[in-house]
C-alpha cells in the first residue's frame, strides 16, 4: 500500500506542478522537454533496462516513434487543461481514458464485453459529459478551453495506453520501452519548445530547466511506485489499477477544490462521482 499511495501522490504532483508553472514564471513547453531528460536518466539509473529487445527485428519501432511524438504533445495538452479547466477535470479526463482502452480491447484485441463493462462504459461516458459541461460558474472566463482541453487529454491518454499495449504485446519489457520512449521524446519535445519560443518569444531559462527536471522526477516516481505496487500486490492487479485511478481522482479533486479553489457546478461534481463509479465497475470484480 505505501507504494500505491506514493504513486497516487506523485501523479497528482505532476498536475499541481503544471498548475503552479505560471506562478513561478516557468515555461511549460520547456518544462515538458527537460522532464524527459531527468525521467530518462532515472530510468537508466534505477531500472537498468536492457535494450537488447529493442534491437530485435520484431521490435515495434514505429509504435515507439508514434509514442515519442504523442507523449510530449499530450503532456503539453495536460498542461493547457490544468491551466484552463483545472486539476479536477484534467485528472478525471486522464483517468477516464481507460474507456478508450477498453473499447480498443473489444475492437482490436478480441476481448468479449460483459454487462458490468458495458455499464462502466455508460457511466464513464456520462461522467465525461458531466465533467466537461460548460457552466459559467464552473468554467469562469476560459470559455471553450475549459471543456476542449480535457477532451484532448481524454483522447490522447487513451491513444497512448493503446499504443503501450501494442508495445507490451510485442514482448518489450516496460523498462526498455520507457528508456526508448523518453530518449526519443526529448528531441521531439525540444522541437515543440522551440516552436513555442518562436510564437511567444519566451527564452530558454535555467528556471524552466530546473522546473522541468523536477517535473521529470515526479513523472518517473509516479511510474516507479506504480510498478512497485504491482510487484508488492502481484496477486491482485485489478485492485492496484482501480485504487490508483480512484485515488488520483479523489486526491486530485481534494487538491483542486481545497488548495486551488477550483469551482465545480453540481453537474461537474456529479461527474466526479460517476467517474469513480465507472472506474470501480471497469477495474474491480
Automatic annotation (TrEMBL):
Annotated TM spans: 6-21, 33-50, 62-80, 92-109, 115-133, 145-164, 170-196, 208-227, 239-260, 267-284
Membrane topology: Multi-pass membrane protein
Domain of life according to the entry: Bacteria
Record key words, sorted: Membrane, Transmembrane, Transmembrane helix
Domain spans labelled EamA: 3-132
Subcellular location: Membrane
InterPro entries: AA-Vitamin_Transporters, EamA_dom, EmrE-like
Major site of localization recorded for this protein: membrane
Cited PANTHER family: EAMA DOMAIN-CONTAINING PROTEIN (PTHR32322:SF2), INNER MEMBRANE TRANSPORTER (PTHR32322)
Family: Belongs to the EamA transporter family.
Protein name per the record: EamA/RhaT family transporter
Organism in which the protein naturally occurs: Dyella lutea
Amino acid at each position: 500500500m505505501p507504494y500505491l499511495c506514493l504513486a497516487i501522490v506523485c501523479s497528482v504532483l505532476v498536475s499541481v506542478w503544471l498548475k503552479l508553472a505560471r506562478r513561478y514564471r516557468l515555461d511549460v513547453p520547456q518544462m515538458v522537454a527537460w522532464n524527459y531528460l531527468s525521467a530518462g536518466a532515472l530510468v537508466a539509473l534505477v531500472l537498468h533496462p536492457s535494450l537488447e529487445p529493442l534491437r530485435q527485428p520484431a521490435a515495434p519501432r514505429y509504435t515507439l516513434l508514434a509514442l515519442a511524438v504523442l507523449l510530449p504533445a499530450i503532456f503539453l495538452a495536460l498542461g493547457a487543461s490544468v491551466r484552463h479547466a483545472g486539476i479536477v477535470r484534467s485528472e478525471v479526463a486522464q483517468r477516464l481514458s481507460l474507456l478508450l482502452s477498453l473499447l480498443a480491447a473489444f475492437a482490436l484485441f478480441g476481448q468479449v464485453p460483459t454487462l458490468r463493462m458495458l455499464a462502466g462504459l455508460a457511466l464513464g461516458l456520462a461522467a465525461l459529459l458531466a465533467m466537461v459541461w460548460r457552466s459559467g460558474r464552473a468554467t469562469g472566463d476560459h470559455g471553450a478551453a475549459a471543456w476542449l482541453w480535457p477532451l484532448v487529454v481524454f483522447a490522447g491518454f487513451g491513444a497512448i495506453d493503446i499504443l503501450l499495449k501494442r508495445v507490451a504485446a510485442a514482448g518489450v519489457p516496460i523498462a526498455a520501452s520507457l528508456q526508448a520512449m523518453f530518449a526519443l521524446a526529448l528531441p521531439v519535445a525540444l522541437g515543440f519548445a522551440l516552436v513555442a519560443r518562436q510564437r511567444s518569444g519566451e527564452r530558454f531559462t535555467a528556471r524552466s530547466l530546473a522546473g522541468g527536471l523536477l517535473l521529470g522526477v515526479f513523472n518517473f516516481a509516479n511510474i516507479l511506485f506504480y510498478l512497485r505496487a504491482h510487484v508488492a500486490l502481484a496477486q491482485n492487479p485489478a485492485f492496484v489499477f482501480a485504487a490508483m485511478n480512484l485515488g488520483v481522482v479523489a486526491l486530485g479533486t481534494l487538491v483542486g477544490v481545497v488548495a486551488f479553489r477550483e469551482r465545480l457546478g453540481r453537474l461537474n461534481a456529479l461527474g466526479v462521482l460517476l467517474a469513480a463509479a465507472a472506474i470501480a465497475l471497469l477495474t474491480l470484480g
